């Protein structure tokens, strides 16, 4: 796997996680704080 393939898979994974968080209905906030960090705050 090269860097381009890795980055594409990582981006797809972050999108899946964000979608799951949105659908969960949980009381939380989340945001990408950089290209490779997803910050999740649980209330």
- Contiguous low-pLDDT stretches (5 residues minimum) are none
Structural class: alpha+beta
Number of helices, counting only DSSP H or I runs of 4 residues or more = 1
- SSE topology string: HEE
Overall pLDDT score = 94
Largest sheet: 2 strands, antiparallel
| Spatial arrangement of strands, main beta sheet | 1-2
N-to-C span: 38 Å
Strand portion: 25-35%
Radius of gyration from the alpha-carbon trace, in angstroms: 12 Å
Number of DSSP strands?
2
Number of domains: 1
The gross shape turns out to be: elongated
Keywords:
1 helix; 43 residues; alpha+beta; 2 strands; two-stranded antiparallel sheet; 30% strand
Task: Please give a structural write-up.
With 43 residues, this protein is α+β, with helices and mostly antiparallel strands. The chain has one domain. It is built from one helix and two strands. Strands 1-2 form a two-stranded antiparallel sheet.
How are the elements arranged and paired?
Blueprint: H1 3-24, E1 28-34, E2 37-42
Antiparallel strand pairs: 1-2
Produce a short descriptive summary.
The chain has 43 residues and is α+β, with helices and mostly antiparallel strands. 51% of the residues lie in helices and 30% in strands.
């Amino acid at each position: 796997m090269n860097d381009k393939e890795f980055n594409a898979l990582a981006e797809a994974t972050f999108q899946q996680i964000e979608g799951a968080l949105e659908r969960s209905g949980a009381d939380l906030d989340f945001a990408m704080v950089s290209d490779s960090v997803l910050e999740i705050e649980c209330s």
